Structure prediction request, 509 residues.
Amino acid sequence: MNALAVENLCHSFGTRQVLQNVSLTVAQGRMCILLGRNGAGKTTLFSLITGLYYARTGLVRVFDIAMEANPSAALAQMGVVFQLPTLDLDLTAGENLRYHAALHGLPTELSKARSREELSRLEVLDRIDDPTRALSGGQRRRVEIARALMHGPRLMLLDEPTTGLDVPGRRALERYVRTLCRERGIAVLWATHFLEEVAADDDVVVLDRGRVCWAGSADRIAPDLGVGSIAEAFALLTGSL
Amino acid sequence: MKVRHALRALDGILRREMLRSLRQRARLFSAIVRPLVWLAIFAAGFRSVLGLSITPPYQTYVLYEVYVVPGLAAMMLLFHAMASSLAMVYDREMGSMRLLLTAPLPRWYLLAARLLASVIVGLPLVYLFLFVARFWDVRPPILGYVAVFPALVLSGLMLGAFGLLVSSMSTQMENFAGVMNFVIFPMFFASTALYPIWRLAEAGPVLATIAAWNPFSSAVELIRFALYLRFHMVSMLVVVTCLVAFFLAAVAGYDPGRGLWARRGAEG
Prediction:
């Protein structure tokens, strides 16, 4: 069973078509990189998958649960890190996590224990009682990831999670998310425009101007297109040579 | 939707609203000072120029301060609702609204929980004001403080639902200056909060008609009558009807398929 299956998804804002027949799948325990330039439609796709926008055409299934038919059950399986920071700056890191846990119906004691556990894994436990306003960009991102994991999701959606982070911060975040796939069997859809975030054994979906123009294993993209590197393949696919 | 899950979510939303409210001390302070300034300065000035006849629910001539206090209590609810609405627009711009709307609960429930939490957080301030107003000889019967509770809750919910509707239509925080000038101030001034309807009729029949149809007037009268242990059926019906209408319109505004939320897009 796929963790996420998107079938023939279309979306437009007014007369402007931003997604056209987008289909992709993310297998359980796999890391899928959604690669696309700015404006390719990645964030719109995330908004449709998470039900922020209503998909008029096409289907979104999360562990075989149709988003349209049962959004609550589908959303319960997902942990989402949005492109824009969504922490409440007036609350502490711990309060942000417990707020999220409450929205997912976790009892207070479990939510307290889990917030400590997740923040500890991400090495920000020492900031649990600090207002998120006082945290650095990298620490805020880590708190957001900890928050997304609070309810034990089986699918993680991360929309350009490394934006604004320095190189070591990006690497550390990437490493951590890969361990989630390996150790907890979580499926990950990671949207980015940074090619260096793609590893050889990842699945890759290239999105350009609202269309999927290539999908497959990362180590196949360059040979399939007859070029020497993923960067050249991406440039060829998106016409950015 | 499981009841336990729904209650935990409501508890989480309520806690968040309370924490935010307590930490935004300037907002808290101005929320209580604003009606007191109106009572201490505006009402004192008007007392000498504005005569009031015996108007229900009052059974005798009353001081202008006595007349204006229910209107100022409703004003507190109105400003609180608009501050909450502004916070919704802020949350949307800052992204934290996405967190609420992607919670695994029906969207109408999340909006209702947010509305209820906002009203619960605003009520203690209204009570504080009503008790402080006793120093200005505004002394309704003690039971009136109990009787006014449902009136305050209903009025708060109605005004909060209106704020929710406004937030569903506002694209940017900057638009809120326009909302203040063209919605809140006319709603407040063209009502029975500061002057009885017969006074407005003397100034002009059109203004009196607007005030009579203004749902804010109904909120004011519902509070005024309840505070003096009377029940105003028409006002309650108007408040409940407007609450339902505003809330349904707000839910439609936040609908992922139909509302502004869906029409606007952030691409990436």
User: Anything to note?
Assistant: The two ends of chain B are 33 Å apart (CA to CA). The mean pLDDT of chain B is 87. The CA atoms of residues 191 and 212 of chain B lie 7 Å apart. Chain B touches chain A at residues 1-2, 4-6, 8-9, 11-13, 15-16, 19-20, 23-24, 94-96, 98-106, 110, 255-258, 261-268 (CB under 8 Å).
